[in-house]
Structure formats: structure tokens, C-alpha cells
Amino acid sequence: MTALTLSTAAAPGLRADAIVVGVAKAAASKSGDLVVAPGAEAVDKAYDGGLAGVLKTLGASGGEGEVTKLPSPSGFKAPVVLAVGLGAQPDKDTSFGTETLRRAAGVAARALAGSKKAAFALPVTDAPAVGAIGEGALLGAYAFDAYKENGKNGKNSKNGKAPLAEVTLLGGKPRDKAYKAAVERATAVSEELNRARDLVNTPPNDLNPEAFAAVAQAAAKEHGIKIQVLDEKALEKGGYGGILGVGAGSASAPRLVKLSYTSSKAKKHLAFVGKGITYDSGGISLKPAGHNETMKCDMSGAAAVFAAVVAAARLGLEVNVTGWLALAENMPSGSATRPGDVLRMYSGKTVEVLNTDAEGRLVLADALAKASEDKPDAIVDVATLTGAMVLALGNRTFGVMANDDAFRTAVVEAAEEVGEPSWPMPLPDHLKKGMDSPTADIANMGERMGGGLVAGLFLKEFIGEGLTWAHVDIAGPAFNESGPFGYTPKGGTGSAVRTLVRLAELTAKGDLG
Length: 513
Prior knowledge:
Layout: E1 3-7, E2 18-25, E3 34-36, H1 41-46, H2 51-57, E4 67-71, E5 80-88, H3 98-111, E6 117-121, H4 127-140, E7 166-170, H5 177-201, H6 209-223, E8 226-230, H7 232-238, H8 241-247, E9 255-261, E10 269-280, H9 300-315, E11 320-330, E12 342-344, E13 350-352, H10 360-372, E14 378-383, H11 387-393, E15 398-402, H12 405-418, E16 422-424, E17 442-443, H13 451-460, E18 469-473, E19 479-480, E20 491-492, H14 497-509
Parallel strand pairs: 1-7, 2-5, 2-6, 6-7, 10-11, 10-14, 13-17, 14-18, 15-16
Antiparallel strand pairs: 2-3, 4-5, 8-9, 9-11, 12-13, 15-18, 19-20
């Protein structure tokens, strides 16, 4: 993991491989003028105030995410200056937003892969800005190379470069409590989010339900989190028909993992529930060719929940957080659940399985019913649940549904605050009729149109009476199949981790209901 430190040192005398500065499009400019962002004054002075002009000559426009490298001025101990675009210069009385800084830091960190140390001289106006730059740098420096030659040894892999090893944030106040706390938070959240990315990127032959549970057990021991793992025998004894039904076709048995972080000062309790299908073939309702290759990512919801609980523990948040990981592998075989089978769920409801590729809602239903027994103040489930949500919102935005409008708004606002695009979605009652079954209490499929909303309505049936609940469908942003952008890599993204952590923080402060 990339190291993160604060420093008041001047950029010219700092030993590093590169100095990172920000550049923006000048406000009210029609000629493409550039301005050097605050934080880089010492660097600009070394160019006799002409850094913007030099960058413009080199083709820089100040566009968000643009990277321009140039030799450092005489007297600098760092040989390279890297200018990263911040987009439009903010109005006179405002500063660059935290998400702008987070993305810029991520781009710069990724561009400096292979370097040992970089000093970031980006705009630092307060502790949140420090946290955003630190978070962006740590997330942008991420690389998954465990399966590449020499990758496990932290050396440059045969096909790439080692991540940037150390980031020093200039302009921060190392002795200021707020600044130190911002760095500590950025480190804890980023490290756990990157751990979630590692899990999502791990091939399914190495990450089955049992292996995932073992990772959770090791982390729980390290961070003082209570853990309970229900194996197939315990699931059978407990009547978890949904989880067992989904895992019935696999040689790897399912698991239900409960992670409990408690604080002696907590006044509220949150439950997070994650879909953990470690590989989804579709089961008997086999996915068509071309739709299987990335299905190792179908446990992204469980990875997000796991990471959020550990982050809450590391931050010592004054809120009780319980994480439920519903883990199974969905495979076709002679023992697999068939379309037309009826499963008796943990709640006692029966479900007619019309499509075995609608399996995520089955494992979540059991976990949600179990989580409801603790009577938490709110439940949030996270899942790569439906292709319909991807069609509706694209690859970078997740949908949020809830049985309480105010709580749905709170989740969306928390996501926006941490830089995760989301959108509130409805749960129309009229769509419930499509899940009527002549055989069971409910079917696991309904109308094709609005399929993401149908899935949410199905889950709602398994929430305990009177409990507040939200459903977060991350099917789009959980796995990035295109090129990296901002602080988001190709592959597993860690979507929803930061939203869950923020919800826990707001609850601890008493600012969430």
C-alpha cells in the first residue's frame, strides 16, 4: 500500500521523483488561458511565474484529468514536475471541490507508477481537501498484480510498474489534529476499499465462499471484530433455503458470515448486507456466451460490506455496525436448483425459482431476514443485482431504493458527498403482481421491464416489519471493463464502500435519522 504523509517542506528542496501541481482553465477566458492552481506557488516562482505559459506551449489545456510532464527548474531536488488538469477554475469566492481534487490526485498517482516518492502540491484549503487528495492518491495508485510475475513480491511485474510507493502532501499541517485525522481516515478507508478491489479481482478458482470467509476471519481477528461463520451444516439446520438453493450446484459450499463491530459509546446500530456470489454462471439458466468472463465480480456487494465494517472498526466510529456476507457460487450441475423448484427461505416464505440467474435476491433474502432479527436502526444491502440497473443508469452510477423516502435521500446524499454517483429509484407497488406464483408465496422473477425495481420489491418482502431499509444496486459501477479514469482502475472498483462508511459516520454523529 502506498504510504501517505503530511509535510510543510518547500517543494524545491524536497527529495522526490516528482512534484505534482494543479493547472486549470482560467475563469471567463475564451482564449484557452491556463492558471496554476493554489499550492504550487513555489514551483511557479521557480519558472519566473511562467509555468502556465510553458504548460500551454506543451499543449496543456487544463482539462480535468489531463497530465503534462516537464523537467523541474534548476535547483529542484525532484527532477520532474507533473501538472494535472483540474478543469475550470472555480469562482472567486469558492475553491476546487473535493471530488475534483480526489480525481486529480488519482490521475497523478497512476501516472507516476514505478516512482518511489512524489510530493503533491495541490490546492489545500482545509482538512477535507487534504483527505480528498490523500484518498485520491491512495486509490489512484492501486494495482492488482498478485497473479503477474514477481507481483506478489511487490516488484515490478513483467507487464507493468509497481505502484507509487510514497505520497507526501504539501501544504498540510502535520501537527494539526484535523489534518492528521483526515490523513488517518483517508488511509483506513482507502486501504479497506483497495482490499475490496483485491477480492473482486481475485479469480474465482481462488476465491470461493470458504476462502472469502477465511479472509473475513483474518481481518476480524486483526481488528477486534466479532465474527460468526455459518457453514453448509449450520445453514441447513437454520433453514437458509435461499443461500443453500443457490449454492446447491457447486462443489464449493455456501457460507453466511456475520461481522459485528461494536462501540461502547454507540447509540445506533446499522446492518449492512452484501451479495457474495463468488462466481455466477447463471446456474441451470446459463448465461449466454460473452456474459461469463467477469462474473467473478458478483461478490462486489459482500466485498463492499466487509470493507466498510473493517473501516468502521479502524476509525473507531461510535456506532454499532453489523455486516452480513451472503456467500455462494452459482453453478449448473446435477444437484443444482432448477427453474420451477420451490425454496423455503429463512423467513418461512416460499419462493418459486423461475430463473436461476436471478440468484442474488435469493441469498440476500435470507441474509436480510436474519439481519432484521437484530432490529437495527437501519439496514442497507449492496449488490450487483440486475442488468436492468445498468441499462437504466449506465456503468458509473448505482441505483438506490428504499422503503422510506427520507432514508433513500440520505443514502443518495451520502454517496454524493464522498464522490460516488447514485440515483434515487422508486419501488412501484403495481410491479409486485408480476411476482405472483400459483405454487409459492412469491416468484423470484416478475415483469422484464423495470427489472431492477422488481428485484428491489422482492427484497422488500424479507425486511422485518417496521424496519428502515435501503437497497443499493451497484451492477454498473462495481466492475470497470474500460480504461481507468480518475482514481478508478480497470477491474474491481470498490463501489459503495465509501458510501457505507459515510453512512456509519453520519449515524455515529447523530446526523442520520
